[in-house]
């Protein structure tokens, strides 16, 4: 699907959707429809390592309720023990639900630590474009193995996409290959909606195609009037300021299995903390 087709779809009125039923008609304390807005801590990658506790405290003040971490130099828990990190999150009124990590190294330990504090997911954040389609089947096999380790520890495994898996390669979508060759009992998927749109695909159609496989999403906006091409410079902007029609897309997501809505900021128009503060303000009042 080309960009023009996608924009026509995403700009159409959602007349056929019962918006009030998508999230049970409930609104969050912030006045919007998302109950527990999350943030991927990579959004604050330049600030977080300098003062993890101070930055997390600010994040909580912006109205975020869920945290998705990633592996920095001091691990997923930023120099704290897993149990101490959980306690600090609880004290701030937040929950760590997931983390991006390398599932090919020391994964048994990571899964055990995540399971001990009740995390829901460990997530592979990146594969890169593979040389051939069989390599995506091998990746799916590795996901199944990681999923079994996660299951043993009371959590689940997921894969986070970039644009390459939603671009045709030898006539097939790598995303299809990974989803068809991974076990739904063991592996879920985190849809980075920015990258799906950047590849010229429609997030809602993919969620419809694989109902209840996409359990988490990255909500990341795209600058208006920017070119869509493979290998382009990142064109993300403050959520709510760009071209992606999140009111329409997110209204469809819940009924198709989405459970966790996680803001991610990759490119900055101002200070990172200001970007994620504005994004939270937009999403916490968004009603759909």
From TrEMBL:
Keywords: Isomerase
A single MF term (Gene Ontology): isomerase activity
One Pfam entry name: AP_endonuc_2
UniProt feature coiled coil, ranges: none
Xylose isomerase-like TIM barrel domain: residues covered: 57-285
UniProt name for this protein: Sugar phosphate isomerase/epimerase
InterPro entries assigned: IolE/XylAMocC-like (IPR050312), Xyl_isomerase-like_sf (IPR036237), Xyl_isomerase-like_TIM-brl (IPR013022)
Domain of life: Bacteria
Gene3D superfamilies in UniProt: Divalent-metal-dependent TIM barrel enzymes
